[in-house]
Write a structure and sequence with these properties.
Helix content is about 35%, strand content about 30%. The chain is built from 24 helices and 79 strands.
Length: about 1700
Amino acid sequence: MEDIEFFDICEKEQTAATPFLEQEKDDDDSVTDQFWNVANQPNGHKIGEKSEEENKIRSKDASEGVGEDSDSSGEIQERHMNNGNNNNNKTMKYADRVQILNLRRNLNQLDNIAKEKDLTIEKAREELSACQLRIEMLTKERECTETKIEEEKEAGNTAAIFRLQAMHRRLCAELGNEKDLESKIALMLKENVYEMWQIEIEQGKFGSLRERLEQDEEELERQCKERAEQRIQKEKTAAQLAEQKQQVGKKKEMEAWEAYERRHQKVVEDAHRNHEKAVQFLKKSMSRIRQKEAKEELKTQEHMEKRMQAVLSLKNNITSNRETLRTLQVRDKAKALEAKKQEMKMRGAILAEGGNVTKEIFLHKQRVELERQKQEFTEQQKSRKIEIVARILQEEACVEKQKKHQARAEALRSQGKLPDSLKWRIKTWQYIENACEDPARAVLQKSWCTPSACSLVDDKSSSVVDFSEKALQDTIRENDDEEANETLVEPEFTGLWSQECNLYKMPKDETDPKPLGASKMERKIFTENLEKLRSGIIHKQVVSGHEFKGCPFYSKPSLIHFKDFDVGKTYKKKIILINASYSVNFCKLVGVSEHLKDFINIHFDPPGQMSAGMSCEVVVTFKPMINEVLEGKVTFLAQNGSFSIPLQCTIKRCVLALDKELIDFGTHVVGETISRTIILTNRGALGTRFKLQTSAGDNGTCTTAKSSLERMVSPALDGITSEEKASSSPVESSLYENKEQVSPVKTEEVRQTYMLGESQKTENNLGSSHVEQLSQDALITKADLEAENAQSPVEPPPEEEPIEITLGKVTEGEIGPFSSIKLQVIFTPSVPGDVHAEFEIAFDNPNCKPLHFSVIGVSVDVPVWVPNPNVDLKICMYDRLYQDCIIIRSRAKAALRLKFEVCKELSNHMELLPKTGYIQAQSSFSVQLKFLPRHSLPEDAGKYFDTETRVLEVPMTIMIADKTKPIEFIVHAIVTTSDLEISPAEVNFGYCTIYEAVQTTITLTNKSILPQEFGFVGLPEFVDIQPSDGFGTLLPLESLNLDIIFKANKAKEYSFELTCKSEINRQFKLSCKAVGVHPPLELSHSLVKFAATALNDVSTATLYVINAHVSLNRFTHAVPRIGKGEIAPVGPTSFEFLVPEDSPVTIMPSVGTVLPGKKCLIQVYFRPVLSEQLIREEAVQMLCREDAQRTMLKKIHESEMQKRKDETVAGKKDGKKPSFAAFRQPLRVRSSKHAAASSGFEPPKPEEIKTNSEEYIAAQYSLIRNFTGKFERYIIPCFVASGDIDEKIGSENLKYSPYNTLYLELHCPAVAPSVVVTSNNGKNIVNFGEVAVGHRIIKRITIQNISQEQLALGFSILNPNGPFLLVSPVGTLEPGENQFLFISFCPNESKLFFETLDIRSIKATLTLSIIGHGVAPSIACSVEGEVLDMGYVIAKEKVTSTFKIQNTSTLPLRYSIKLESLSQTRDKEQQRLPFFITSPPGRTDFVGTQNYSGLSVFNIFPVEGVIEPGKSQDFTVTFSPDHESLYYSDCLKVVLFGKEIAREIWLKGAARNHMMFVEGGDPLDVPLESLAITSPMSEEAAKGELEEPAKSLLLSLEYIQAETSGTPAVRELKIGAIRTAQFASKKNVEFSLDSLPVLQQKGFTIEPVKGTVDRGQIKCISVSWVPPADFDPDHPLMVAAVLTLKGDIKESYKVLFIARVVCT
């Protein structure tokens, strides 16, 4: 510790000086290196323990270190002295300060060593003095012992002599040890003193240096202070500068703030001024708005008055019309009666003539009807003639007016410039139109425009012309209005129509539903009344604080759809309305849409109030009268609002479609015929007739090339959409259909026409600049076309072109509803080139639009062609030759010379043979293709080879003589490798013992995309490859795992190669290495296969560990070694089996030692159990299943309740009383409500399931019952080490090699048990717990046969002398049967008992573990001793006392309290002689005086109960005597379990009739009341007197006389006062003792002699006796005195003192 403190001081000093050293660290780097060299000098002083020998060594090292330090310090001193004079006036350098620090460190180190050495010398001297003192003491003791030995020898006491001689030998040995220790301490002290002298000499050498060092340190401190002052000054200067900067910054901030305030003030003033101006403008605007509103209000009122008048006139007209209708109806009735009369007359006439009445009447009616129709037809013809003439006249008038307007417009346009007045007029009209635009005008303006307006636009007069056109349009519009006013139509009721209705637009606010002519206030009142009216019908539905929002009822279906109806038929649909609100609601039918009332009929019976979720039915009947699509809705009203259901009625339609819009025939040779089909499908319910034809202008001709004209025209037409095409003019449609056959001249015309039409169409959107751009484009295009026409004349088209695309047989027909038809298209190429045709399918149904589809194809015409232009070589491997034959055909009429060429890139890989050949006319020619791909193919092929997909596409060329166009065909191939990859390339099996096989896995990968066969050939005898012995087939790019099994046959190093061959005889090598190991030990069995073992059962296997190594001669037999290493030594060899944790396997013994030539028995136990994780997961699943079942039951109950509720409601409607069964089920559901699981059930995590919970036990029981079997395989390592494990001490380990490890393989099959325990939650442990010794407990265990067979059971034998007993064994168990086993436990001693009971059957054994703990009951009582004294009490009063009994055992104690006085054997015991007569060794009768009343004197509560372990029970004892006696007593017994008496307590007490008592002295009578001395005066006489006769007390004292002195005899008398409520007049008791002088004379001392005692208190009178000088020991001393007590009465006691002397 001293050395540590020394180094800490040095470090603190160096740390304190570090800040000053760092200031000049950069000035002198060389000096810094010197500092570190000096600072890291080795010190001789080291830290060690404080033992004496180490102190010697350390002192020598310290002296050597001091010598070294002195040498270094001497050098420092010389340098320091040389530089001392120069350092006085100059600042010390960095090196000087380092030297000062090092010198101070060395001096401090020397001083510390001196102090330490001084302390060591002091300790040595103290130890030396103590040792000398012990030597003196031992010398004295030895001399004393020698003296005693001599004395005992003289006395002849042999035992004492031997004892003293042993003591003398011990003292001599101790004395010798102390002298040796003294010499060692003296030698050590001498050495330490010598070393101290040396240290003092060294200190003397450094005296002058120490003084100089102190001066240098003072100088260094002074310089540090100066530097600190300079630094402080610099910091003050910097602080002043910073403060100045801060002040400048604050000043700038104040200036900026003032500028900001000025700007803000200015902005506020400007805002005020602007606000005032805005207020003025706002007032003016508001006044204008109010005036405008007032005018509009006046207009509205006027209009409303007109409407009211019109309505009144309408009402009058309706009234008059009704009267007219009544008149007409009466006239019609009269006519009908007259006609009937005439018919009756006619009938009578016909009958009279004998004709056919029915026929004649029918013919008469037809004649009348025909005449009426003729008359009506004549009238219609006349009216139509009049209308036609009127229309002709109107049209002529219109034509004349248009001519006049056109002439006027021409005159305006021809002027060029308009006068200024007209310009201003036009501008005024434009402003008026912009200010108040009329929608009717806009419509008229859009509907009429001049066709040639755009073509007459000029740059200078375009705007003027526009204005003039507008003026013309206004004029035309006025004329049109006049014509409209001249209409011949008249209103039905006069005054209803007005002339201004065409131009008047209803204001928006007039469209609101309000009373006619109402003001704002009236509208407000009307709205409030309407809301009040609605509030009476519609209520907000609020349930539990949530307002229902949304549709109150849902309908199924949500749309009422009558699809594909026929007129005249009736259709019905039933919909269901479901109450989707929160609570009870009702539903009322409002009606259907107005236009559907003639066709739709709703049958709806209002159900009244409906609960949430209830539903009702609505029947909708639809009877169509017209064939039109109808849409509307059915409206209902609910309590919280109205809702509607959409209704839709659709007619039968044709829904036609094609499966494709383009048919591509591909490329074909001229002369072939190809056909394709297209399917026309009708998905509608209405059939129609169709016709397939070519589109207008499309003849299916071939187009070989496009002219430049088409290329220029087509971009201008590409931007037109299909809608524009459909709405364009016939010129435009012809342009689209014939855009590939347009001549240059016609193209220009068409193009101009198109541009003109476009300009007219976009006249309102495009400006003049856009029109100019189009016209410029047209001019440029025209110029280009003329130039091209001049350079290349156009050839006229052929007169007749062959039709290559034709239709099949079916071109028209009928397509029915929901059917399809196949249409055939035939392609017959006749001219080389591209063919395109457009076809159209037209339908008779006008609502069905025509369908279009296109057909394209390509035809080629060459003299020579390849029938198979794509030669596919499939998949090819590198370095393999592939050949194919290519057929070439000729359609020429002469022989042709062919030349076959291969591209240069593949000339080294591919070849065509022959290279030149002749093909005969209209024949074929064969060419041989050879392909030998090499590994350089990817680099050589270049663009023809795709490295990712490895696809090769090579174009081959066939050159024909005298032909410029070659024939090409393509050779396709996928090139792949034939490599097999073995991973890893090298296998190292490591160390393998000769008793085992090592397996490693390699991966054999087929790099090819072709399957390859492989096989490992030439395998050595110690290698095996599986599966299939190393042979097989690899699919493309497949990887196969192969197991290589290596089994060493002897201890050596192995190095070999395995060869794998493919089907093309390629070889692939695999390098292998291994080291064979022969371990010192071997196992008799390396593989153990257990029999099928039931869960919780045990299977045992036996094997041996053998040590066969007895000789080191390697030539006679194989010796244990690792490879070619050293041979293992002959001797005991140890082993250890390492069993994995949580495995069902146990090995006994797992550690041991085997001697050479011996073997050790090993037992392996297999006990399968279920894992805790599996049981927890099963418990979670069971909880989930239970929750699902509860939820399902709950839903079933709810559905039943709902069903019964519906039945009840239906019964009430029908007037039937609901049965009692309808109410019984809901009660059961209500009672099981708490058992139902909530919908938000969250299963616990498996980790949360505890092992002692019911869920865990139930899951374990379920898994055992449903266990289907399990197979596990374990490999247990056995480590081997040379040596005996028993000879190793502590934690020392044997040296072993991991390569000598043996392995034991275990196959462990587990099956379900046949017999299980069903009681105690399926546990196989019968735990009796803690049972009191001598008591017997019986437990019942239930076992069940869960197998399908009858089982005969056998039982193992329990220990006959043990506490366990099988009461009732079972013989047989039927399948599924339960039987009971009764086991009893009766411990005979206090300890833990454990036995196993095996229940054996044919299939398995069930082991029951029986545990019991015998416990001896023990208690602790708070009563000290065996007596509980209740004290004195007034007779007929009560006193209580409490004591506690604690259960100190570990089991609950059942106790009972019994009194001896209440014992059943009490009568027999009373017949015996009293104990004072028989004089037994101890008193056995504890029962004393009892009450006269027969009641027990002592009462105990509680009498019986159970005390838990560690708990305590309070017992209350009540003492209630009924008369005076001093001998009340009883015996209290604590009985445990009704048998064992754990504790006996003697209860005693005394009763007095008076409040005072005296206690003490020797007994003068017997404790039996019948034999006790009684007072001759009765209690009644005593009550009459205040003084009782004197009682006697005997007090004997014995003075013990010893040899030298004696012990005084002391006795005590106790005087007490009983605490009682009686005797209120007397509060205390007075006592006094007379004859004191006589007693003192006889040697008695009494204190106190008199005094008082308070109630409830006791005072002691101490009596001591010392024999006086004249005492005769042979005659005892007897003295009498009177003790007087005064309480409620006065009592006197005659105290007889007897004293004697006893010698010891």
